[in-house]
Amino acid sequence: MYTAIGYAAQSATTPLAPMKFQRRSPRADDVAIEILYCGVCHSDIHQARNEWGIAVYPLMPGHEIVGKVTAIGANVTQYRIGDLVGVGCMVDSCRSCDACQADLEQYCLAGPTMTYATPDRVDGSNTMGGYSDSIVVSEHFVVRIPQKLDLASAAPILCAGITTYSPLKHYGVKAGDKVGILGMGGLGHMGIKFAKAMGAEVTLFTRSPSKAEEARRQGADHVIVSTDAEQMKAAAGHFDFLLDTIPVQHDLNPYLDTLRFDGVHILVGLIEPVDPPVHAGKLVMSRRVLAGSLIGGIAETQEVLDFCAEHNITCDIEMLDIRQINEAFTRMIAGDVKYRFVIDMATLKV
Ligand SMILES: [Zn+2]
Ligand SMILES: [Zn+2]
Question: For residues 30 and 173, what is the distance between their CA atoms, to the nearest angstrom?
Answer without folding.
Answer: 36
